[in-house]
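Handout, tutorial session.
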Amino acid sequence: MNNRPILIIAVAAALSLATVSMASIWLKQKDDADTIKVVVATRDLEVGTRLQPAMLETVSWPASAPIQSPLHAMEQVHGRVINMPILRGEPILVSKLAALGQQGGLSSVLKEGKRAVTVKVNEVVGVAGF
């Protein structure tokens, strides 16, 4: 019996398997090199929400799609308060968070030196001026 064709097929199969695994490793390394780690929301977050680790995850973000002032580690956002709505899967940006140490709410939205005043409004006051 002639074993030469079987040997050629076995060698070809082994070489193709080795080639596929090397290509897979190379592509994975290439993908890792072209990405950055970014913290994103795992659910929709409302204004005034204090960020907790359960609300966030770290994902790989394409370096070719840059975003301004992303946060890269959970430690940077833990306990911070949101001052703009954030959707699920959206990166957590510095511009959407209240300043460090602020409690959130209206005080986190007001600029330094500004004040907010509440005014009672009812039907009578609401139509004034017409």
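The second record follows below. Compare its token runs with those of the first.
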Amino acid sequence: LDPEISAVVLAHDPTFTYRKLCIAAQYLRNPDTLFIVTNMDSGDLIDNGRIMPGTGSMASALMFATGRDPINTGKGGSFVLPYLMTKYDVDPSELMCIGDRLDTDIALGKQARCKTALPLTGVTSRETLLSTPEELQPTYVMENLGCLAGLDMKFHL
């Protein structure tokens, strides 16, 4: 192993293999090695409604193999959006988190007290939405992103 490597960063990788899992796990056995993920999506919609394993699925394998929890730098993480709101002095009421996943995109917006919008063109179906707990219900639900044009929004550039 290369002693200069100080972090394992896991992002979407359609070529993720057992070999990569083993190498990453060996680096993560060092408690000083950072374990970073870009998101914890369990799956990604590809075509015809099929879902392939997402970054969260790969991260779960590493978490189980090493007993380590990653730092989530993307959606669903606890520090990225608050950091950006502080850095750019933006009030949550001025933001809208838009995404097709209730467990990451909408959860991120809810956590930050932003408005949220769920287009029904991705992972979350209308049926799933109907059985979703209130705490993960989006502010707006739309057939597609084109519907955003109908919302009364003000942008400050």
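Points raised in discussion: The chain has a mean pLDDT of 89.
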